[in-house]
Give the backbone structure.
Amino acid sequence: MKKLYYPTIIEQKQIAQGIFSMKLQCDEIAGTALPGQFINLYCKEHELLLPRPISICETDKQKGTVMLVYAVVGRGTESFSRLQKGDMIKVLGPLGNGFKIEKGVNIHMLVGGGIGVPPLVELSKHLKGEVYAFLGFAHNPILVGKLKNYGAKILVATEDGNVGFKGNVIELLDKKDIKGDMIYSCGPKPMLKAVSEWAKGRGIRAQVSMEERMACGIGVCMGCTRKIKKKGEKDWQNRKVCTDGPVFWSEEVIWDE
Amino acid sequence: MKKLYYPTIIEQKQIAQGIFSMKLQCDEIAGTALPGQFINLYCKEHELLLPRPISICETDKQKGTVMLVYAVVGRGTESFSRLQKGDMIKVLGPLGNGFKIEKGVNIHMLVGGGIGVPPLVELSKHLKGEVYAFLGFAHNPILVGKLKNYGAKILVATEDGNVGFKGNVIELLDKKDIKGDMIYSCGPKPMLKAVSEWAKGRGIRAQVSMEERMACGIGVCMGCTRKIKKKGEKDWQNRKVCTDGPVFWSEEVIWDE
Amino acid sequence: MSKPDMKINIAGIELKNPVMTASGTFGSGKEYGEYIDLNKLGAIVVKGVSDTPWKGNDSPRIAETYGGMLNSIGLQNPGVETFIKEDLPFLEQYDTKVIVNIVGRTIEEYCEVAERLGDTNIDMVELNISCPNVKEGGVAFGTDPFMVEEVTKAVKKVAKQPLIVKLSPNVTDIVSIAKAAVNGGADALSLINTLLGMVIDIDRREPVLANIVGGLSGPAIKPVAVRMVYEVAKAVDVPIIGMGGIMDGEDAVEFILAGATGVAVGMANFINPTATIDVLSGIEDYMIKYGFNSIEEIRKGLVISDF
Amino acid sequence: MSKPDMKINIAGIELKNPVMTASGTFGSGKEYGEYIDLNKLGAIVVKGVSDTPWKGNDSPRIAETYGGMLNSIGLQNPGVETFIKEDLPFLEQYDTKVIVNIVGRTIEEYCEVAERLGDTNIDMVELNISCPNVKEGGVAFGTDPFMVEEVTKAVKKVAKQPLIVKLSPNVTDIVSIAKAAVNGGADALSLINTLLGMVIDIDRREPVLANIVGGLSGPAIKPVAVRMVYEVAKAVDVPIIGMGGIMDGEDAVEFILAGATGVAVGMANFINPTATIDVLSGIEDYMIKYGFNSIEEIRKGLVISDF
Ligand SMILES: Cc1cc2nc3c(=O)[nH]c(=O)nc-3n(C[C@H](O)[C@H](O)[C@H](O)COP(=O)(O)OP(=O)(O)OC[C@H]3O[C@@H](n4cnc5c(N)ncnc54)[C@H](O)[C@@H]3O)c2cc1C
Ligand SMILES: Cc1cc2nc3c(=O)[nH]c(=O)nc-3n(C[C@H](O)[C@H](O)[C@H](O)COP(=O)(O)OP(=O)(O)OC[C@H]3O[C@@H](n4cnc5c(N)ncnc54)[C@H](O)[C@@H]3O)c2cc1C
Ligand SMILES: Cc1cc2nc3c(=O)[nH]c(=O)nc-3n(C[C@H](O)[C@H](O)[C@H](O)COP(=O)(O)O)c2cc1C
Ligand SMILES: Cc1cc2nc3c(=O)[nH]c(=O)nc-3n(C[C@H](O)[C@H](O)[C@H](O)COP(=O)(O)O)c2cc1C
Ligand code: FES
Ligand code: FES
């Protein structure tokens, strides 16, 4: 159930320059979380009051553990990175709606950019059929081994050509030109927009996991909205990333901002 | 020199209900502090920005240690009490002017009330001649053993008669009626006022260590003033407890507030 | 020991306790119903409702600040009809008072919403003339005593329920605004709404909020809020609902001592979903500790020494 | 890499960098001279000076708040003659600009102080019409555009040095106040002074401050300050000195991006005696990181996207 918890950190490590993975002991969240959901992490510093939303990268229902992977980009994530094994952390979750996993979908295309890759890990464990993971990074790939272990076919692009294809993930999609049945995508907004267009051009349905600055995370503050136009609607509405999303159908998102 | 330091806490213990002693490793402060001076302690919590002034209870110049004794009365002192041996703490000091130790004074009377006793400890080590310590508490005496070790003759009063004389420290002074040459006093304002009157009535000179809410602690903000009328002045002035005090001559303090 | 009596009375309506939700921070109650027993609240103040649906401002709408936050929601809401159809039935299940915060771009729009709500059995109307996040109406009505009196009068005329007027802190003289609202017929006042603020992302060199400026709330603003409640309480006779940075029972008591009859919890809900209930039990603890028998006793309990 | 040029120009006076001290938080510089090299500061703004000595308010004068503090000093100062005799010679030793904050209860008193300072070689006068802690004068002059213009005009007439007018944030419309000061002849503006606030000790059930209310400063107020600097910078052509909660170089850059030419460090001094120098090097780091060649470039660097 989505609730406040105070789990213990059972592992914290730096997995790449400025990127950390943190494992929490939290049976309740591990037991109920769906792929694509996120949790709100609270800072110990009382001057930083708002929670930070972080996607669930992976859960282990048996062990009751939840893995998060986050980039240090500001004071909040910096503060998380200073926490150590054994420390407690306040969290709220699991929050939001996960990716839709539909029957009859055989070829799955995961498209992740940078710190958008984490939620694709748990997702990959739930998909039946062929899974391709198109992963784009600036320089250092993360979580590639995990996705591979879970059976995804890995296609990596780095902007500087450090590993794999030199270029961005869209160029990689163009090059490989695999025609899947469904795209699941998470990453920076320009990438999601490009993925959305790419998918549209090829008639592939695509789900995109969006980010927006949040306050409550549970749908009351109306802080986290994006312009969404559902099928059949005449006009867009500002819909909440936290509870209407974070995953939306790409064709419903108004990208023109 | 008065400066910002980040000493390590080498001892922290509860010495009575709600009262803690904390020992810091800080050669610089230990080496220069005078009896009656205080230091500013900063909280780790960034929502509590102002430093807390705490008197120096005792220093050990050889070992370079500084002992503080403080009561938990609010968020700041509560936060100090949660710190542990090995933790660092930000401090500024030593601050203020200590007690005046004059030549030709043979019988010294220390008068301390509750959490006003700590600065008298270091002072007692610097006094030559006979030292009487009149100590008043609500229920639990503190620091009595220390003062005794340093040679003071101990006279304790507790309001409930738990230890020693039943009553307050003024009643104890009345009862013992010792005629010293100098009084050094620290404690709650009503006590200081009463001590001041008691001393005046007997023609004994008295120094009182005052408290006031502070911001800077170094004399710039004008936040910590008390009404003081120096000898020869026609009118009182608001003078700074932090740099003009905290120790004042009792006859210079305007008590009528 | 018997539980202290926490009842309060606002404009003839009895609330079981002084703890309410601050408009816009509690949705229409549904979401927090998963965390707390809504029956325990003195009142639920729902988010701002307009005559027709409002889309609100562009995102980002949230920025964090030291000890607080900015929001520039811009009063997004589905309109009064949808509120009545979809949210009100949920709220009516509970044994708590329902106060509806109403917004408008013109006096006419405010009146329409108030009139429409007159047909429902909500308990009170809170007139929001203090939202800093909309260009028309909103705060424009709330910063000029003449306008405050006009809009209050007009809405009071059509409202069937008691009328609370919610004041903006972004004014030179809160007392003259409060008096204008009371002259216009306000049965109670609530304050404060958010302070206008701005945060700049120095790396991207642009304002964090799409709307550039937004409303500051949270513990950072509490001293301003307490001061305004204190000033207004001395100047008017209607009950006051105090808010601004209330995080716990002690904060709430501070507002009551300043002169508030009721208190509202806003941003704290985002940090702790059970904040309202925690505030409630904190007030109760304080009453027990110091032997207060009623909220009214606390409200009259401030001692001003003559220095 | 060569050091970036941090010079700024205010009313024809060149400061070696934009970092100043906020009046009342730095004394007359002596005390902080033990912690930092005063020669490194762009300017030292000394505490409010009146014609004759002022005793200030009763104690307690300080209260802590979440992310900030209240003060109700009430402009205690030994008067302009003592300032000139005792503090100025000390300040004159240093290679930094000296700005004197002046206060008064009447226009005449302001003028007297400004005139008297005209005989000295201080660099600028800062007219404080925004102190919330004195009953007469002070903020009363600062909240009404007509009065702001009058007092500015009068002081400008007698002042020999360039005139900065310091604005109060406790107003409905900061822009109209700023314009009034400029119309009155202000060569520059500084903002913000403190927000009026109050803290109640719920255990003793009395206000913490003897003066009941006091001025709120510190990081808690920064969003309000940045917003006001932004609004004023868009509306007037004179240079602005921004302040309110600046704790580090990044905070200072935020003010410059909002439109400030100079910045002042206040409460931060109490938390960190080297705050001014840390702010200075933080600005320099930012300039190096992003390749800014002047403060002016930062000031013009804010991007407002068209959403
Ligand atoms: C649904 C969702 C899932 C996310 N999952 C991940 C993840 O798995 N790993 C990861 O590294 N990051 C993730 N993010 C982004 C992450 O929330 C931000 O990087 C983080 O909040 C930044 O906090 P900060 O204090 O370090 O940065 P600051 O910039 O100092 O943050 C200041 C404020 O802005 C908010 N904020 C800043 N950036 C964002 C953002 N992109 N989205 C929402 N709020 C933001 C913070 O919550 C905070 O209130 C996710 C965001 C969302 C909305
Ligand atoms: C010169 C001097 C020496 C002191 N020495 C000691 C000592 O040795 N041991 C000890 O236990 N206490 C001492 N005190 C009192 C101590 O400073 C306060 O008890 C402490 O600051 C309370 O902080 P708090 O956050 O726990 O309480 P809170 O009440 O939450 O404090 C809130 C604010 O009020 C200020 N404040 C509260 N009470 C006082 C006070 N009495 N004096 C100054 N500021 C106050 C705090 O600094 C803080 O800014 C001394 C005070 C002064 C002025
Ligand atoms: C996200 C958000 C939305 C708000 N929406 C409204 C609103 O619709 N109507 C209103 O009168 N006040 C609104 N407010 C103001 C709050 O009701 C309250 O007055 C303010 O936040 C101060 O209280 P706090 O510090 O406890 O949050 C909103 C505040 C926030 C943070
Ligand atoms: C203790 C104290 C005393 C002050 N005295 C003055 C003063 O004499 N004149 C003045 O114009 N402003 C005075 N101020 C206001 C500051 O100069 C500054 O405008 C305000 O504190 C905001 O900046 P900060 O948040 O960095 O402190 C004072 C502020 C404090 C905290
Ligand atoms: S974060 Fe509050 S509604 Fe989404
Ligand atoms: S505390 Fe600032 S002058 Fe004493």
Notes: Residues A 214-217, 219-224, 240, 242 surround FE2/S2 (inorganic) cluster (ligand 5) (CB under 6 Å). Chain B touches chain D through 31 residues (CB under 8 Å). Chain B has a mean pLDDT of 95. The first strand of chain B starts at residue 3 and ends at 5.
